Amino acid sequence: ATVSEPAQKCCTENIQPFLASILEELMGPVSSGFTEVRSLFDKEVNEIIQDFQKTNDTTKLKENVDQLMNLPFNSVKMEPCYLKVNLLQELLQDLKNRFKVYHIDFVIQRTQNFMQELMENAVYTFEQLFSPSRQADSAKVATTIEKVKLRVLK
After folding, report:
1. Whole-model pTM?
2. What is the domain range of residue 85?
3. Res 150: pLDDT
């Protein structure tokens, strides 16, 4: 009871007025990181489509889809996504000074973990939706891959 009123006053006067602008500032790097994840998935699936259209090789298609399943764990390919979120380091440093925000690395790491989870979910969903169609007529496979990709991106 003794602490409640001063704490509420402090939050109302010193923190609440800045929350919207802080959230907006932080969401820039987070959004660009997740957009990069989406672009990477799109690019990788487009490469699978192009490769299949050139070769019509279903064995190679299976290999490419298997490689896609490993995409979330490919640190080289995921690195551009993670780098977008590293901009939070600078933004959070300012918050640390103003509002005593600690564990900046934890915030960045958790965001990157969520990005990896999103990619895991995307490739898993892609594989689950595409798997039954893998044995289809080779003329329809590229179209099916594209439809599945668009469904996953949706």
Report:
1. 0.82
2. 3-153
3. 95
